[in-house]
Amino acid sequence: MPQNRKKSLSGNQPRRKPLGKAELLPYTAAHVREQLLCWHLSLAAFKAGKGNGDLLAKLVKALYLTWYLQDAGFGAVKREVYLEAEGILDAAAHSASRDVWIIENADCRPIIEILDLHEQQLLCAPVFAVHEAESRVVRFARSERRAPW
């Protein structure tokens, strides 16, 4: 039996479209810088007490996206860092009920560590892997789970 035969799909599996060159390569450095600037400006707004729900959502999405890319094999930060960052973002969300949108400067280290990892992930992970991680973030958001870890 030849070993180079294509694996046949079962009746339940949809045929996957072949990936194009743009999906197999990482994002451009310019795109990564733009994304990174967005996240760091969001964090800077919170440090200045000028945060809001949209900026919080961007930081939370970056946190979860980084986790799922790490799960796919792109870089690593200890789970405790994610838990610490999540706690800080949760506290920022809870203080918003008092119309206070702030993250103290001293609390930023775990968030910055995750954003730094995410920058490295976006510079090396192929676009299709990022899209798959984004899909996982969406599925997680629709689930009843408290956290992806």
Map the helices and strands.
Layout: H1 21-24, H2 29-47, H3 53-71, H4 79-95, H5 109-124, H6 127-142
Explain the overall architecture:
The structure is a single chain. With 149 residues, this protein is mainly alpha-helical. It has one domain. 61% of the residues lie in helices and 0% in strands. The longest helix is centred in the first third of the chain and has 19 residues, at 29-47. It is globular and about 60 Å long. This is Fis family transcriptional regulator.
Provide a concise account of the structure shown.
The chain is mainly α. The chain is 61% helix and 0% strand.
What's the domain count?
Answer: 1
The percent of residues in helical segments reads 55-70%
Q: How would you spell out the order of helices and strands?
A: HHHHHH
* Radius of gyration, in angstroms, nearest whole number: 18 Å
The strand count comes to 0
User: Which strand-content bin applies to the residues?
Assistant: under 5%
Largest sheet: none
Class computed from helices, strands and strand pairing: mainly alpha
Gross morphology: globular
Distance between the termini: 43 Å
* Mean pLDDT reading: 91
Low-pLDDT stretches are none
Number of helices: 6
Which structural traits does this protein have?
149 residues; single chain; 6 helices; 61% helix; mainly alpha
